[in-house]
Amino acid sequence: MIRKRYLIGVAALTLLAACGEKEAAGDAASADHADVGVAEETKAPAEAAPKMPAGFPKMTATYRAVYDISSKEEGPKEATFEVDGARKLRFEMAHMNEMKAAKGLKLIGVFDDLNDRMLLYVDGPDAPKAALTLPQKEGFMDTFLKWGAAADKQPKKVGADKIAGLSCDIWQTEDDGGEHQACLTSDGILLRAGDAGEEPTIVAREVKKGAIPDSRFAIPEGYEVVDMGPCQELMQKAAADAKAGKAPDMAAMMKCQAIGQKAAEIFGD
Questions:
Q1: Which residues fall within 8 angstroms of residue 48, CB to CB, at 6 or more apart?
Q2: What is the C-alpha separation between 116 and 207, in angstroms, rounded?
Q3: Over the stretch 179-208, which tens digit does the pLDDT of each residue have?
Q4: Per residue in 139-160, pLDDT tens?
Q5: What is the pTM of this model?
Q6: In the chain, where the domains are located
Q7: Run of H or E residues at 229
């Protein structure tokens, strides 16, 4: 669902903090990539984009939006999104650790379709100078188009509204978790989302359209790049080997676990 895509930054950071076992050290182009002992991944052929109903939004807008986000687990939070059409998305929110947030530390995430990567780092006073990268398994637009396509159920328009000064159509879809709604402008700006019949999970408070500098989506100067892709692949391979009764590469596993623990210290509670 579209709600999941726009909240994926929050979920990704939570998973990284809990995982403690994904990642390869060093620069994305460094020899450490080979140290983990994982072969380069071959991308699967792209699936045909699902056919969406007439009038379904096109993700073309370039904008900055401030959202109020709420959940039973985390309580109310504020997040800022900067979006360059279907190509790039950057989110920014206070660190999940209250003490770190009080010091002005912020969690930053970037989904970069042009470079097929996700980028995660912390910004603010005395922030650790490490940027974690992960390969994107699927493009931003691909995920957007698949919203509501599960089980061949297309999203349907069920109403309209006006939020943060912009008009939007309410689209509803359903999956195993129930019915979900998102209010989207014709050019793809998410203004509200949540489960049908419940309080919305995310609501736009302020939206400003306009160009966003490329620097907002780049790795900050002076940050060490830590490529998590090889260790992500290693953990998947280890799980498959375990099912087949094969022993994993323990040296590589320990290396990945250590880097994962470092990620947890940076991003976790």
A1: none
A2: 26
A3: 889 999 999 999 999 888 888 899 999 999
A4: 655 565 555 555 457 788 999 9
A5: 0.73
A6: 2-26+50-154+212-267
A7: helix 229-243
